[in-house]
UniProtKB/TrEMBL annotation:
<dbReference type="GO" id="GO:0006508">
    <property type="term" value="P:proteolysis"/>
</dbReference>
<dbReference type="GO" id="GO:0030145">
    <property type="term" value="F:manganese ion binding"/>
</dbReference>
<feature type="domain" description="Aminopeptidase P N-terminal">
    <location>
        <begin position="62"/>
        <end position="193"/>
    </location>
</feature>
<dbReference type="InterPro" id="IPR052433">
    <property type="entry name" value="X-Pro_dipept-like"/>
</dbReference>
<comment type="similarity">
    <text>Belongs to the peptidase M24B family.</text>
</comment>
<dbReference type="Pfam" id="PF00557">
    <property type="entry name" value="Peptidase_M24"/>
</dbReference>
<dbReference type="InterPro" id="IPR036005">
    <property type="entry name" value="Creatinase/aminopeptidase-like"/>
</dbReference>
<dbReference type="InterPro" id="IPR007865">
    <property type="entry name" value="Aminopep_P_N"/>
</dbReference>
<dbReference type="GO" id="GO:0005739">
    <property type="term" value="C:mitochondrion"/>
</dbReference>
<protein>
    <submittedName>
        <fullName>Xaa-Pro aminopeptidase 3</fullName>
    </submittedName>
</protein>
<keyword id="KW-0031">Aminopeptidase</keyword>
<keyword id="KW-0378">Hydrolase</keyword>
<keyword id="KW-0479">Metal-binding</keyword>
<dbReference type="InterPro" id="IPR029149">
    <property type="entry name" value="Creatin/AminoP/Spt16_N"/>
</dbReference>
<dbReference type="Pfam" id="PF05195">
    <property type="entry name" value="AMP_N"/>
</dbReference>
<keyword id="KW-0645">Protease</keyword>
<dbReference type="GO" id="GO:0070006">
    <property type="term" value="F:metalloaminopeptidase activity"/>
</dbReference>
Length: 482
């Protein structure tokens, strides 16, 4: 932006080679020859945003073929769920625009199911997948039509015909035609998702939710999805490292939250995947502490649970560290125990096919209780596993894991008591929480709250930690301050 010396301001003379397409990415990825003559759509394309969408992809990270395979697999699952029905019609609404205050929208995030199945990025749209159970289903997209007055404010819309070209759905129409399409559709088993899209809700009174089918699909990630999730995790890890390094006694939680978000966004994340928890000292014992408005005392640790979202895929990482760069002996005792628990859970994941997430949770509770017995925090007389698990649970009120994907708590209908499978991404997040008011434990441990959380891809060769780039061991964390 600042390197073209011949550009003068106030319209006097612009260098002949400068253009509105001049951007900081052109040194990384040359813009195509057609440059500015390419029509901008309502979402990035390989032509207009080559730094986001690679050749052969229709949306960042994914090809139209992959999206089409997802739709076919989704339809096949619906047919399997209701084999007696000859025809099926599934209506998948997009997210709608939500307003913060008069005419001021919240920044838009597409509905995950809708985007997973078709990749369309605009609000107020509907995807319909329909057909006979013995045939390949057809996909019809209903999207906002071109409207110069609206596009003046909100930017270009893709419109029906270009949506077909870009996303390779079978047909597309203006969204005002969806009602006619659905009401004139022959008798079929109807599937939909509960939504705040009134149009779709009143048309589909007899429909059944398709959530189970879509979540079954989304639970197992493709290699393209893993690529995006790996990049999201890398962004998170690099940003966490920068945030840890920049912390110091009396740092404000809000400064660390801002630092983290800044580091994520300059690395390409569109937003954070969830409001981060940045909790100094005893506040780490409030599991969903998101106020982040306090100052962290010199000898306190900070617990930070945060993740970048990249191309609608989440990462979710937690680290706990002393803001002065050196663990006290009490912090060290508990941190080392937690690190060991984390390590043992990761070892179990080498045989993930024999375990469920609930099994891992029970393991965590037992390991925490045994470790805390050694520290004189849990009653040494407890010996039965059931008693110990119960005692451990008192120090970690949350689960040790959830599935991760486009949503942070991804595919929530998939039970945590099902055996783990290749292709899943799960978090591993043991924690130990000792609120200051817990008068039953030795004074030096009161007010400590710790969690270590990583994102783990389960592969044929065992667990692969997507968030490995962020140091986890006590020594490595202290090393970040040297
Ligand atoms: Mn988590």
């Amino acid at each position: 932006m600042f390197r073209r010396a011949s550009v003068r301001l106030f319209g006097r003379r612009l260098s002949s080679s400068s253009s509105v397409c001049d951007n900081p990415f052109d040194r990384l990825t040359p813009l195509p020859k057609t440059g500015c003559s390419v029509v901008a759509l309502g979402q990035p394309t390989a032509e207009t945003h080559p730094h986001l969408v690679r050749d052969k992809q229709c949306i960042p990270g994914f090809t139209a073929e992959e999206l089409s395979k997802r739709r076919n697999a989704f339809f096949a699952l619906l047919c399997k769920l209701e084999p007696s029905a000859e025809r099926h019609i599934a209506v998948i609404p997009s997210a709608t625009k939500v307003f913060m205050t008069e005419k001021i929208p919240f920044s838009f995030r597409q509905n995950s199911n809708f985007y997973y199945l078709c990749g369309f990025s605009e609000p107020n749209s509907v995807l319909v997948i329909h057909g006979h159970k013995k045939e390949t289903p057809r996909s019809v997209l209903f999207v906002p039509k071109h409207d110069p007055a609206n596009e003046l404010w909100d930017g270009p819309r893709t419109g029906p015909s270009r949506a077909v070209n870009l996303l390779k759905v079978d047909e597309a129409y203006g969204v005002d035609e969806v009602e006619k399409f659905i009401s004139s559709y022959p008798t079929a088993k109807q599937w939909s998702q509960r939504t705040n899209f009134p149009l779709v809700d009143h048309l589909l009174k007899d429909s059944e939710p398709f959530d189970l089918a879509i979540q079954k699909l989304r639970l197992i990630k493709s290699s393209a999805e893993i690529d995006v999730m790996q990049r999201a995790a890398d962004i998170t890890c690099e940003s966490l490292v920068e945030t840890i390094r920049s912390s110091h006694p009396f740092v404000l939680e809000s400064q660390m939250a801002a630092k983290f978000e800044f580091e994520c966004r300059i690395r390409g994340a569109e937003r954070l995947a969830y409001p981060p928890v940045v909790a100094g000292g005893d506040r780490a014992n409030i599991i969903h502490y998101i106020a982040s408005n306090q100052c962290v005392m010199a000898n306190d640790m900070v617990l930070m649970d945060a993740g970048a979202e990249l191309h609608l895929y989440a990462s979710d990482v937690t680290r706990t560290w002393p803001v002065n760069g050196k663990f006290t002996q009490a912090q060290r005792d508990v941190y080392q125990l937690l690190e060991e628990v984390h390590g043992k859970l990761m070892l179990s994941l080498y045989q993930f096919e024999y375990y469920t997430l609930d099994d891992l949770f029970e393991q965590m509770c037992l390991l925490i209780a045994r470790g805390l017995q050694e520290l004189g925090i849990v009653d040494p007389k407890l010996t039965s596993e059931a008693e110990l698990r119960q005692a451990g649970y008192q120090f970690c009120p949350h689960h040790v894991s959830h599935y991760l994907g486009m949503d942070v708590h991804d595919t929530p209908l998939m039970p945590r008591r099902m055996k783990l499978q290749k292709g899943m991404v799960v978090t591993v997040e043991p924690g130990i929480y000792i609120p200051r008011k817990n008068a039953k434990v030795p004074m030096r441990y009161r007010g400590l709250g710790l969690r270590i959380e990583d994102d783990v891809h389960l592969t044929r060769d065992g667990p692969r930690i997507l968030s490995a780039k962020c140091p986890r061991s006590l020594l490595d964390i202290e090393g970040l301050f040297k």
